[in-house]
Amino acid sequence: MPSLAPLPIARDSTTESANIANDRQGLRVWRYERLARLHALKRRTPATPLHRLTFPGLPGIRVYLKDERAHPSGSLKHRLAASLFEHALCHGWLTPGAPVIEASSGSTAVSEAWFARRLGLPFIAVVPRGTARAKLDAITAEGGRVHAIDDAAALSSTAARLADELGGHFMDQFRFASEASDWRGDDNLAAESLRQFDALDEPAPQAIFLGAGTGGTAATFARHLRLRGLASDIRGVDPQCSVYRSLWAGHSTSLLTDSSLGPNPIEGIGRPCPAQAFLPQAFDDMQTIEDAASLATARWLNECFGLCAGPSTGTALIGALRHAECLHERGEHAVLLALICDDGQRYRDTLYNDAWLERRYPAHRQYADELARITAIGRDSQ
């Protein structure tokens, strides 16, 4: 049987292959340099503080708050932003000069803008209209651009469209948060928290109270605790205008829409539609927290302890305190953990504006009374 003659290789094809190889080598070097810069930034970030709160009304219950405000970009989302950039660089998705685009209620965008500036990348945040002005200012102060839209349920689709139109990369925290975070390592939030408890000669927390925006933080905690063989509960706290509690309980969310749920004043947690990164199995329990209770608790924390935090911190803390009350009534002792997610100064026009709070959430007063009753600190205890 006659053999087939090899096809001639066009000179132009050889040149094209060489050019592609050179371009890819240049991109590889560029990505290595950005990863080295990113890792140097992470190494320079110290562990965030752990505050212990004690309450006369809850003897035997020790509540700790891990203060994520201490990050250079000011919130818990600093960790997620670093993981997302690392994830995108290692997958080869980032290129010089191409914009990084994110869908965010604000804090993740602030943190991603912080990293994008230091990595030499343009950044665009797609945010809900009505996002706290201080967050928007923080994004633009880092050189980012803001694209505000009315429908919070369309954040991701809008960001994906912009990335396609501009030749950029949609970071997509709501899809990749639980995948990008390194839950096995010793420098994630869960591992760092456990080291701090060990240094204080405290046991691992009996329960950890977490809201879910992407669900990435809860996934990291749950996986790391299981890896370590620890039995701490992950107890979810969800705003009123969110589908996560229903999703966790196995109820259908298909009939819920952003308009039927209404606005969510608890920025950073809760979603009008499920995030792909959200893992219901990460949570041992999940409860819905009244928005006015979240706001009242954040204000109470600032007034009584001088810890000025955003509304999502209030959501987690009131969940922890209600659980603590149940434990106290049963005569149990426990160590509980919640997070200070971001700085209350970002909400000076809303949460910390008396006129806004009275006009929008007058029920906050009844929850201030509840906090004083549970803890014996505050209005009714004076």
From TrEMBL:
- Cofactor(s) demanded: pyridoxal 5'-phosphate
Check the record and name the InterPro entries matching this protein: Cys_Synth/Cystath_Beta-Synth (IPR050214), TrpB-like_PALP (IPR001926), TrpB-like_PALP_sf (IPR036052)
One GO cellular component this record assigns the protein to is: cytoplasm
Q: Where is the Tryptophan synthase beta chain-like PALP domain?
A: 44-337
The entry lists its GO molecular-function terms as:
cysteine synthase activity; lyase activity
Tell me where on the tree of life, at the top rank, the source sits. Bacteria
Keywords, ordered alphabetically:
Cytoplasm, Lyase, Pyridoxal phosphate
Pathway the protein takes part in: Amino-acid biosynthesis; L-cysteine biosynthesis; L-cysteine from L-serine: step 2/2
Cite the Pfam families for this sequence. Answer: PALP
Q: Which SUPFAM superfamilies does the protein's record reference?
A: Tryptophan synthase beta subunit-like PLP-dependent enzymes (SSF53686)
Does the keyword DNA damage belong to this entry? Answer: no
- Where would you find this protein in the cell? Cytoplasm
Query: What Gene3D superfamilies would the database entry show?
Result: 3.40.50.1100
Q: What role is this protein assigned? A: A cysteine desulfhydrase that generates hydrogen sulfide, H(2)S. The H(2)S produced by this enzyme stimulates respiration in M.tuberculosis, mediated primarily via cytochrome bd with a lesser contribution from cytochrome bc1/aa3. H(2)S modulates the balance between respiration and glycolysis, and also contributes to redox homeostasis. Probably eliminates toxic levels of Cys (which can induce oxidative stress).
The molecule here is called Cysteine synthase A
**Organism the protein comes from:** Modicisalibacter muralis
